[in-house]
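User: Predict the complex with UFG.
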Amino acid sequence: MSVLIIGGAGYIGSHTVKLFQERGLDVVVLDNLSTGHRELVDVEHFYEGDCRDSEILSQIFTNHNIDTVVHFAALSLVGVSMTNPYDYYHNNVYGAIILLGEMVKHNVKNIVFSSTAAVYGEPNNIPIMEEDPTFPTNPYGETKLAMEKMMSWFDTAYGIKYVALRYFNAAGADSSGKIGELHQPETHLIPLILQVPLGKRDQISIFGTDYPTDDGTCVRDYIHVNDLADAHFLAFQYLAKDKTSNTFNLGNGKGFSVLEVIDTARKVTGHPIPATEEGRRPGDPAVLVASSQKAEKILGWKPKLQLEDIISSAWNFHKNNKIL
Ligand code: UFG
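Assistant: Here is the predicted structure with UFG placed in the model:
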């Protein structure tokens, strides 16, 4: 049996490919390399192609004995999704229809799916629980929620079982220093902060200092990418054993403000990292912190790495990476 990892050359995908291989699984990767990097995956069966292409999916399902798909391939920039919803619906939602359709045709029964905290929108309660209301405030979150709902109906109709993993703020890099976060353009806080000590930017902008938080800056729940990869493996095992669909939040359960993240990065890098205060970035909720108790209880998942480990590992990767 093999696992098909779609989007396996991307950030979280590449860490998951490595972990699945280390745990002895045969991995097949499909990636269109629109945002992924071929150098991030060391795999025998690599297909360059798009999940909206039913022919390549059919070819993969015919050539390999796939019982589970891990689906990362999606556009994921909140801001861009606001100005270009067409691409987001086309890539994410249409891509999922094609994929699920081919899974039905080829009798592939399990899917582990990358979802997001963006499905909740502006939360009413902190920490956020899986059963809290889902009101996305941008097309990115809407497309992920639509994909979750689609999988639920495909379970009812065709018996395809899914685990949707709602990530909070993925960050950090593998300790090998060989794989890490390489977005272009980069919009995420931690890699942007690290561009200052790397000499790629002069300062970091703080988007908003008037939020209702202790220091006025936004609070987020940062989770190490290898802890996320581990959750995908546990979800894969859960589907094989329990054969039921489910949805889980994945976060550390602890929030850090933008200022706390910058201070931790100063400590890790030994660089003063100048910061400037700017206005709010549209669409940013003040606080997003997960309750991951359900994943802990049902999947046996417990994140191992905290903010300082996350920033140290990202720093180790960015100092040494020669890919970009
Ligand atoms: N921020 C800054 N300066 C920057 C970049 C970011 O102050 O230069 C702030 C943001 O305003 C936000 C925090 O840092 O308050 C974190 O921002 P990121 O862009 O790193 O992450 P987000 O919280 O916006 O995004 C994350 C996930 C998305 C998910 C979203 C849900 O990366 O996939 O949470 O709101 F959709």
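The longest strand covers residues 110-116.
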